[in-house]
Amino acid sequence: MAGYPCDPRQGHIPGARNVELSELFDRTPEQIEDLVGRPPGAEVVAYCHSGSRSALAVELLRAAGYEARNYAGSWHEWSRQPES
User: What domains, with CATH codes, occur in the chain?
Assistant: First the structure.
């Protein structure tokens, strides 16, 4: 995953699935389920670099039936945590 120079480390949150925001537009709930890997109704947390794109993703995921939340600190915050 490409990162930003302001982040102390690059990568992703363990267990996260990379779904580009653009992939959520104009999709059926079944197609979104394939992308997300969890059924509608499941709790999912979206994140990006700073929390703005993921905020829109949350709205799209909620419209598809997910219990979606935004990790507002997103990768910008997570990359500053000690690696586990």
Answer: 39-84 (3.40.250.10)
